[in-house]
Amino acid sequence: MAGIMQSLPGFRDFFPAECARRNYLTGTWRRVARSFGFREYDGPTLEPLDLYRKKNSGGEILGQLFSFTDKGEREVALRPEMTPTVARMLIAKAREYRKPIKWFSIAPFFRYEKQQSGRLREFLQLNCDLVGDASPAADAELLALLIETLRAFGLTSDHIVIRVSDRRAWMEFLATQGVTDEAQACEALTLIDKLEREPRDVLEKKLTPLGLSLGKIETFITSARPDFFTALQSNLAARGLDDFCQLDLRIVRGLAYYTGLVFEVFDRRQDRRAVAGGGRFDRLLSDLSDGKVDLPAIGFGIGDVVLGDLLADLPATRSKMEAAMAAEQATDIFVIVADESRRPEALGVVQLLRALGRRVDYPLNADKVGRQFKDADASGAAVALVVGEEWPKLKIKDLKARTETELPHEALADWAANLQTPAP
């Protein structure tokens, strides 16, 4: 129909079902991150444009910014990622926190890029960062958090793989090929990051001016064995998590600030882009603070779009997600007003149950009892509580078993406290 307003391309409306799915993702993210001792933080949605210019997040991201000049003549941008923001925050307050600092955030991000499978212009992302520890143990701890986050959704090593690599090994290789300038090295790594996405002849043409050949790059990928991987696998093996990781030097990550370990999570069927990714950014705080704060850091991000698509594709994870969504949207108890003369008493029952923390619904206006029971079924409630001519006795209807019992009003609070309902 002409004239109906629609959301902008790449942006989403969240109707109740979509909100329930989002809450399932964010609730799981938050629960697992806290189980690892990570503390939640957040930052502003709008940042100074110079934050992304000063230590280039990557030429691609700079070209995808939602940026503008505000009414105070400041150049600003909607944040496309969280790492520069957390770096800015840590530069200001790092001395106030014990090390290592373990923080996580769940926030929206914005990138003006072409819409395609798994990519939108606004997306939600979990970011986890461990700051102030450069040890292999810190690397393994963060990867364990990533793995456990994905396992919490029902994903196993049969479904996903974490492909890990090392930017230090790449920088050493590039130096042997005569690429010692940092800007040229970053340009080379940006090209190498596209090995699986661009035709060979196109890449070869772009690499030649840098003095690089695709053949030598591929030889390095297949033959190099960086030392870090043995220690990483040993740590993960002690937790029973080593099946999730494999060494793959094709992973370099396109962002310019990565310095060491880098990694990306993929569906083993390779049906979609990376589910998650991250790595070490040991120099970013120093670069942004002009050397005033120098702390090593490692982090990762998981977006809701690709992860949600993956969970919806796999039968086991889809059924788990759908059950959580149903529980999220369901009421616990539906109060049936079978006798309108007892509506004041019914309202008192509703008030008491809500005060006890139960999710309760009831008919706002007089309605046939049969229609009220249909509404109770539609609400997802486990039970219906009937307030009628039997007052002060109540009838309890189990809406799944279709059984009925009586309950004295004075026992209502104890009954509600012990009622078992699905966790949202």
Write the layout of secondary structure elements.
Blueprint: H1 16-35, E1 39-40, E2 46-48, H2 50-54, H3 59-62, E3 67-69, E4 75-78, H4 83-93, E5 101-110, E6 122-131, H5 136-151, E7 160-166, H6 167-176, H7 182-192, H8 200-207, H9 214-223, H10 228-238, E8 245-247, E9 261-267, E10 276-280, H11 284-288, E11 297-303, H12 304-313, H13 315-329, E12 333-337, H14 343-355, E13 360-361, H15 369-379, E14 383-387, E15 393-398, E16 403-408, H16 412-418
Parallel strand pairs: 1-5, 7-8, 12-13, 12-14
Antiparallel strand pairs: 2-4, 3-4, 5-6, 6-11, 7-9, 9-10, 10-11, 14-15, 15-16
Helix pairs in contact: 1-13, 5-10, 12-13
Can you give a write-up of this model?
This protein is α+β, with helices and mostly antiparallel strands. Helices cover 39% and strands 20% of the residues. The chain contains 16 helices and 16 strands. It has helices at residues 16-35, 50-54, 59-62, 83-93, 136-151, 167-176, 182-192, 200-207, 214-223, 228-238, 284-288, 304-313, 315-329, 343-355, 369-379, 412-418, and strands spanning 39-40, 46-48, 67-69, 75-78, 101-110, 122-131, 160-166, 245-247, 261-267, 276-280, 297-303, 333-337, 360-361, 383-387, 393-398, 403-408. The strands form 3 sheets. An 8-stranded mixed beta sheet has the order 1-5-6-11-10-9-7-8. Strands 13-12-14-15-16 form a 5-stranded mixed beta sheet, with helices on both faces. A 3-stranded antiparallel beta sheet has the order 2-4-3. Helix 14 (343-355) links the parallel strand 12 (333-337) and strand 13. The mean pLDDT is 91.
